[in-house]
Design brief:
By secondary structure, the protein is of the alpha/beta class. The chain is built from 13 helices and 16 strands. A hairpin with a 4-residue loop joins strand 15 and strand 16.
């Protein structure tokens, strides 16, 4: 990170500033660029009060071609400063997100996901001439196709009540006490909710990583990054926004390190645990029966070599699961064992977690013993 202006707001045009940053130095980019909403008239509610929408100077472009040139310039500059393992999140609406997606691909980015942020409290469509705009779209892309990138799958699953997180996210817009106002007026017309940035940063960075926001605004990215103990760099050309962001981030208290970076080693990333390890460590025995989820009559016998036998067929827990379902199958979640301690059927993933916990304990105890030698 030598030469990086960490945890600072840099003043100026984002393209020029990014060209001054070291190449391949940033782990993640979050970009909330101008949407080019092309608003040509004021909008009023039925009670004739004016809608405080986006009509700022920074969102005005003379043509779509000008907007495309602007987009290509900042995306190219961002790609230069990203590590080869880095990823970028870009948010937009139907006005701009499809043009951005094309340019991303043309520049060599590889799209990993598009996320639909469904607003639980969207603004109504007052004119009644089309559907209310109740969502925005995020594109998540990696710099180099096939490179290893950060995705904290298990953190996302835990955040979603231990269910796999989907690509439709139901989150409220920024309002209430979170919305920054100056003399009763919105400080920034497109301030994003911290809940959205919390999810993005937790999903695709680790403690100590560097998050760059080239359109920093009032500093939501910096505030959340600081809270989650990530480094951040903000670029903002409007000194009013930069001042608000600086004051806002100064008030943020970082989370306890042990709350965002577990002290126990990540066993899953250190060693793959095969099904046979349950036999070797006595969690299952040869001859035990397993039952398939939702089809208890489908029983399989555990073999001494770590395979299971289903009728006349033999194979791994995943292969036998696929045989039953006709589709790829995660055997850890679909095969159940009879838990003597509780008297109920439980997925064999329970046994894997017990083994992982024991392995983690042993690693920690070993580390403590090593520390006593020095």
């Amino acid at each position: 990170m030598e030469g990086l202006p960490l945890d600072q707001i840099l003043s100026g045009d984002c393209v020029q500033v990014m060209h001054e940053l070291p190449a391949q130095s940033v782990d993640m980019v979050f970009a909330d660029p101008p949407y080019n909403l092309q608003i040509h008239q004021e909008l009023y509610r039925p009670n004739m009060t004016r809608v405080d929408g986006v009509d700022d100077e920074w969102d005005r472009f003379q043509s779509l071609a000008e907007y495309d040139r602007f987009t290509e310039a900042w995306l190219s500059a961002a790609r230069r400063v990203m590590k080869d393992t880095g990823t970028i999140w870009v948010i937009g609406t139907y006005h701009n997100i499809y043009r951005i997606g094309k340019i991303l691909m043309d520049l060599g980015y590889w799209i990993l996901n598009d996320i639909v942020w469904v607003k639980t409290n969207p603004m109504p469509q007052f004119r009644g001439v089309r559907f209310a705009n109740a969502h925005e779209t995020l594109i998540w892309a990696q710099k180099v196709k096939g490179a290893k990138y950060t995705f904290n799958y298990h953190d996302m699953k835990a955040l979603n009540d231990d269910l796999q997180m989907r690509s439709d996210w139901y989150l409220p817009v920024c309002s209430g006490q979170e919305r920054i106002r100056i003399n009763g007026e919105k400080a920034h017309s497109t301030q994003k909710p911290e809940a959205l940035l919390y999810r993005l940063i937790l999903a695709s960075t680790n403690v100590g990583d560097v998050v760059l926001d080239p359109f920093f605004g009032t500093g939501t990215t910096g505030a959340v990054a600081k809270r989650l103990r990530r480094h951040w760099i903000g670029i903002e050309r409007d000194p009013r926004y930069a001042q608000i962001a600086e004051q806002r981030i100064a008030q943020v208290v970082p989370a306890l390190l042990e709350a965002v970076e577990p002290v126990t080693p990540k066993i899953r990333s250190q060693a793959r645990v095969p099904f046979g390890a349950l036999l070797e460590n006595g969690y299952l025995r040869p001859g035990d029966l397993l039952f398939f989820k939702g089809r208890r009559e489908a029983t399989a016998m555990v073999l001494a070599n770590g395979h299971i036998r289903l009728g006349q067929c033999e194979g791994s827990i995943h292969q036998m699961g696929k045989l039953l379902t006709g589709a790829p199958c995660n055997g850890w979640e679909h095969w159940y064992f009879h838990d003597v301690a509780t008297g109920i059927l439980q997925p064999i993933d329970v046994l894997r977690k017990r083994l992982l916990a024991e392995m983690s304990k042993q690693v920690c105890e070993g580390a403590q013993e090593d520390s006593l030698l020095f």
